[in-house]
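From: lab user (bench 3)
To: helpdesk
Subject: output format question, protein + uridine-5'-diphosphate-xylopyranose

Hello, I'm new to running complex predictions and I'm not sure whether the block I got back is the full result or only part of it. Here's what I submitted:
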Amino acid sequence: MIKKIACIGAGYVGGPTMSVIAQKNPHIQVTVVDMNQARIAAWNDPDLANLPIYEPGLTDVVAEARGRNLFFSTEVDQAIHEADMIFISVNTPTKTYGKGKGQAADLKYIELCARQIAAVASTDKIVVEKSTLPVRTAQALKSILDNTGSGVNFHILSNPEFLAEGTAISDLHHPDRVLIGGEDDRAIQALVDIYASWVPEDRILTTNLWSSELSKLVANAFLAQRVSSINSISELCEATGANVDEVARAVGKDSRIGSKFLKASVGFGGSCFQKDILNLVYIARSYNLHEVADYWEQVILLNDHQKTRFAERIIRTMYNTVNGKHIAFLGWAFKKDTNDSRESAAIYVADHLLEEEAQIVVYDPKVPAEQIYRDLDALGTRSPEDNRRLLQVVESPSLALQDAHAVAVLTEWDEFRTYDWALVKQQMKRPAFVFDGRKLLNRKDLEVLGFQYYAIGE
Ligand code: UDX
Ligand code: UDX
Ligand code: ADP
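Helpdesk reply: Thanks, we reran it on our side. This is the complete output you should expect:
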């Protein structure tokens, strides 16, 4: 019986997942630790509006469990020391240096965790990989733990998280499946019992470690592949006069194909898809499976193409120059209902337009200005001063839209649909262009108002 859980990493995965585990297992004490003090302070903020992550439904879960059996702390060692089970939920970004640069996952944070656990543990522990990791990381973890620990037993489990941002709480409450990979039956059962508090047993799958690790990469690769597949067809639709939504609808009705994840867009983003596919590509190449690697790499290349294509469409339509023109960006997050902008298509589209000296004004309901500048500065395309000179972030949509030459919809936030578009039209320069990267707005309505409306895949 597990009495105490620690989770290292209070991010988009660790925070919501542990909140739900604590909510559904009031008899287990769950402590989420992070070395980022500001982040922990935000998780502990009495005002739930200040939680570091925006997720619909999250505040209710935290309100129920926090202080009862859910705790957020920076005392990493103490939490490790007390726990029977430790989740590792730290970030695993793509390497930016050395071997595998740009493709392999950077495991330094994972390794640091393993060494810290080994140094502190004085009783047996079940260590659960929650972060997405390349296949066979569990082996590396085990080796570090066994060689640097003080003789206690470590059982490693892989328990990849399939939640999507923006729907994290509902995904956690009603998962399609929970996947647990491992070698030790008792350790596996201990984790099964925790999920069985609210997940039907037939949805809890157990496999060996490697299958579990690989399944996570493959699930994300398949999902991203569907988006790139429909996006490739969106370009064909634009060239031929077919409508990509109509095609997606017709194709998705085939029960073998299914209707979900066929929404053409300006390109997928998020912390997982690109990273996991690059990882899959890297692993395939490391086994000399070049055809396999090339196949999956194409999903990324098509996604890059889609972002570039959208930016070029804007420039071409605006008489081949956007220099000095005011372009309002509606949305910066990589999808709606999240304040996360990692790998968001908006970053790359903005970068492309800024190279042409466009004047961009961004409004996003949840992403703060500092983060937007950080995203752009991280590309290193131009100086931070130039990014601030060319791109402005505003707090209200009307400030972004006033006097704009064009509007570009980058995120499918529901509120964009509700704007008074007749009024927007009056406030904009003529001709008033709308470039809809999410197929969010209604073509007929906008055309009646006199907009020049362009959408992906039409
Ligand atoms: C296909 C389409 O299914 C059908 O809708 C269309 O009208 C005509 O083309 P068909 O070629 O008769 O039908 O057979 P299908 O069952 O789709 O199989 C095609 C090939 O894919 C077969 O060689 C089959 O063995 C193979 N296949 C199918 C797999 O290897 N794995 C699978 O999971 C499914
Ligand atoms: C994804 C997986 O869905 C989740 O299971 C995994 O645990 C983490 O990675 P997430 O990145 O949060 O989740 O969001 P998701 O909803 O999958 O969207 C990813 C990107 O694809 C977004 O930019 C989204 O806008 C885009 N997308 C998705 C499309 O462009 N079209 C679609 O039809 C679906
Ligand atoms: P994810 O989307 O995978 O949850 P995030 O970047 O949102 O990723 O969260 C990962 C968190 O893990 C960050 O808040 C980071 O500070 C934390 N972290 C990374 N390494 C350690 C460590 N060794 N000890 C404690 N916290 C860590």
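A quick orientation on your result: The chain is about 45% helix and 15% strand. Let us know if anything else is unclear.
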